[in-house]
Write a structure and sequence with these properties.
This protein has 176 residues and is mainly α. 61% of the residues lie in helices and 0% in strands. The protein is globular, with a radius of gyration of 24 Å. The relative contact order is 0.06.
Amino acid sequence: MTDTEKEGATASGPSAANAREESKLAAGGQQAATRSIFSIKSKHQSAKDRFNQRAQEYLESYKMSIYLQDAIKIILERRDERPLDLLNEYFNTTLRGEHILLREYAFVSATQLNRKSFLQQVKKVFHSTPHYKIITALDYHQMICLVCSDFPRNLIIETVKTLPIASSLAGEPEIS
């Protein structure tokens, strides 16, 4: 948004600025990739963009292929009598954030949802005890490996390097 447009937005209110921005987009003046981070895209335009995507692009934009492939793999491994119930259970587990338990690191780190779920599970499982603050980084890594057996040790080591030194924190235990 230029300085003139900002002044107009202040004088006319934010809804007038949004209307001007949307009219520019409708006229084809700007592509979605070059839009300002402050511009608001209408739900209608977002839906239109989604429906204009090719099927594969849509699935990839939401990382759905990872979950669909994983669900099919599990169904084929188990060959349950009721595969739809298994599919339902898989996605319910995913929505609860429990789908990453005992999974390989490649899967845990594959999507933002998986990474978020992993952190929530680690917090839920290990931070419920008051003793988690007095362990070493390598002990913490071993605990994390109980949730994800191939979790890279170097991630814990690099994370610890960014933490403040315990002596500078009054009363906080040191993580080594």
